[in-house]
Fold this sequence. Notes:
Elements: E1 4-5, H1 17-36, H2 45-48, H3 56-70, E2 78-83, E3 89-92, E4 99-104, H4 114-130, H5 137-150, H6 155-159, E5 162-163, E6 168-170, H7 176-190, H8 201-218, H9 228-240, E7 249-252, E8 259-263, E9 270-274, E10 278-282, E11 289-293
Parallel strand pairs: 2-4
Antiparallel strand pairs: 1-6, 3-4, 5-6, 7-8, 8-9, 10-11
Amino acid sequence: MPNRHGADRVIHGFPHRATVRASLTALYRRLSPDGVHRYPASVTADDVALDDEEDLHLGAQRVAHALVRHLQLPEARVVVSFRPMEYAAAVELTAGPEYFVELNDRFRTRRRDIGAALAHEITHVLLHRLGLGLPSTAENEVLTDVTTAYLGAGWLLLDAYRQDGVESQKLGYLTPEEFGYVLAKRAEVFGEDPSPWFTSAVAYEAWVRGRAEAARERTAPPLAGAGWAERRRYALQRHRGRASEDAPYAFAGGAPATAVSFSCPVCLQRLRVPTGRTLRARCGVCGSVLECTA
C-alpha cells in the first residue's frame, strides 16, 4: 500500500472509474450475491481501536485478528511487525496457517491508522485465497481497495485521509472520492450510513462527493427514476439511434434504436434491454431487479 504524505500529492476525482466498476462486477461474480450479503455490517471503530496504553504489538495483532474475523478468513495467527519501508504496509501471501504483515515504522506513533493499513493488507489475503485478481498489479491494488470498502472495512482507509494543520495523509490506491463512491454503493445495498464514523472532515467531504456520484447512477436513463430532462435527452438520442459520448448508455438496432445497454447500478455489470417499453430488468450477476423505462 502506498505511503503518501502531503496534500499536494493527493489525486481527486474518479480517475480509476473503469477499474472500480470492473472490480465491483468481479467481486459479485466471484462471491455471488449471497456471498456478498455475508458481510451485512461494517467493522466497528471499537474493534480496531488501539489506544496508547495497549502494547503496540499485541494490540496490532488483536486488530488484525478482528479484521481476519470480519473478512471471514480462516482463524489463524497474524504476525504484525514494524520496520522502516518505502510503502505503508505489505503482506506475505502464503498458504497459511499464519499471516505475516509488515507496517511502516511511522505507525508506531500513528496508532489510529493501524486498522486502516491492516484492512488493506488482510484483504489481499482474502483475494489471494479466493483466486480473484485483475490483469495488472495496479488494477489489483484498486480491486483490493474496492473489496475492502465494499465488504465493510474500507471506511477505515477513507477516514485515514487527513489534511489539517497537524498532518496530511492519504492511504490506499483509490482517490478519496472513489472510496466515498464505493462506500455509497455498499450503503445502498445494506442500508448503512457510514457518515457518523468519520473523524476526518476531508474524509466526510469525500464521502459526500462519492455518494452524489453513486446517486447519479441510480437515476440515470433508462432507469425509471431518471429526471425529466435526462429522460427527454434519452428519448431524443434513442430516436436518432445514437447516444452522446458522455451518456451512461449505448443504443443498438438502427434509428430509432431497438435495444439499449447500460450498467447495473449495483454491480456495474453491463445489461441490455429492448427499447420502447416500461419493464423490469433482472441483473444476472447481482440479482437486482431494476425498474426501467427504455
